[in-house]
Write a sequence for this structure.
């Protein structure tokens, strides 16, 4: 007999996170659905991984607290190693944040639409997830967030799935308005005009998370960084899995952080293509908002994204379509690819439009 009925009620009640589709290895698709970087990581980063494979690293445990990565991150971003926590992806940092700050029944509040994993992680924790709408022009409804009595606030900046970035002055004001940690999920900050790291000095309740999956071309390794006040970082370290970042990932992260300039050409190429792709989509009658991330949210003229998603998929182009909530159902979230991939998407769109 199954023991599924013995699972905690909150686990039985939840659906589980639905990741974007990952095609089978070797399957030939234009993959513009999960916001990976279309370019490989710089050679200096790949060489650091190969060097680990050749040495004793794989049969030994990695450094438990990823100290060398934290030192490299501190050098790269002008912080102290005690302010840095390293995660097995930034999702791992989100898990640590929920474990640390959200007791059963406590409230997690996020301006939405946003990253759907937040609700899943809150459910696992037995917390209550409350979404607050974005204000006009992608602003933060600070009063509404504070009035929701949060134990933790989660803000994606730049936001997903639209790509706008709320004002940093508003993030500051929110940090002052709530007696709770405010997490700035900066998974897409490498493509943005600015970021919230400079706010850390003035706001001990601010926590910034970063991902190596988008800007740094290392989604397959699973790496993320958390930046916080040293006392908050110390709490997060207690709930980490003991060896949460493997040796290859630590070597790659250190090389990446010590060679941020080597990423500039990749990032500039994506940012340039973002502008070109947005213009080309608008020319075709789609409504495309300004984006500071490596994706665009494009609203189709006839109000239903699903047939477009399916027709593109039939032509070998994967993009992301969100049937829910309703305000996303007329949109296609398209990751910015290489010029060739973006041209293939545009050609497929033209073919779909032509019927
Ligand atoms: C992709 C993404 C993440 C997860 O990044 P990983 O480092 O791959 O775990 C976190 N937050 C947002 C908003 C994302 O889009």
């Amino acid at each position: 007999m199954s023991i599924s009925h013995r699972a905690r009620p909150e686990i039985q009640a939840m659906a589980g996170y639905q990741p974007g589709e990952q095609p089978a290895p070797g399957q030939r698709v234009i993959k513009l659905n999960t916001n990976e970087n279309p370019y490989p990581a710089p050679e200096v980063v790949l060489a650091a991984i190969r060097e680990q494979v050749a040495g004793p690293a794989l049969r030994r445990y990695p450094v438990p607290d990823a100290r060398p990565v934290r030192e490299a991150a501190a050098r790269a971003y002008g912080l102290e190693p005690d302010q840095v926590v390293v995660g097995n992806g930034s999702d791992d940092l989100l898990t640590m944040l929920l474990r640390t700050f959200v007791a059963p029944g406590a409230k997690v509040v996020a301006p939405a639409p946003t990253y759907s994993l937040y609700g899943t992680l809150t459910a696992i924790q037995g917390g209550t997830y409350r979404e607050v709408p974005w204000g006009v022009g992608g602003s933060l409804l600070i009063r509404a967030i504070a009035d929701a009595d949060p134990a933790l606030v989660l803000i994606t900046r730049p936001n997903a799935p639209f790509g706008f970035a709320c004002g940093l002055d508003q993030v500051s004001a929110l940090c002052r308005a709530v007696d709770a940690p405010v997490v700035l999920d900066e998974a897409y900050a490498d493509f943005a005009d600015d970021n919230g790291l400079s706010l850390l000095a003035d706001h001990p309740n601010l926590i910034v998370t970063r991902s190596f999956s988008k800007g740094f071309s290392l989604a397959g390794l699973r790496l993320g960084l958390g930046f916080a006040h040293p006392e908050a970082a110390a709490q997060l370290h207690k709930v980490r899995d003991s060896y949460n970042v493997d040796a290859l990932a630590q070597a790659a992260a250190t090389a990446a952080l010590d060679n941020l300039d080597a990423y500039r050409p990749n990032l500039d190429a994506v940012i340039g293509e973002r502008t070109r792709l947005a213009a080309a989509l608008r020319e075709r009658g789609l409504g495309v908002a300004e984006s500071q991330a490596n994706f665009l949210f494009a609203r189709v003229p006839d109000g239903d994204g699903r047939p477009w998603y399916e027709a593109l998929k039939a032509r070998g182009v994967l993009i992301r379509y969100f049937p829910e909530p309703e305000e996303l159902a007329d949109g296609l979230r398209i990751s910015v690819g290489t010029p060739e991939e973006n041209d293939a998407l545009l050609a497929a769109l033209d073919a779909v439009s032509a019927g």
User: Anything to note?
Assistant: Residues 89-91, 115, 156, 160, 185, 187, 211, 213, 219, 224 surround pyridoxal-5'-phosphate (CB under 6 Å). The chain is about 35% helix and 15% strand.
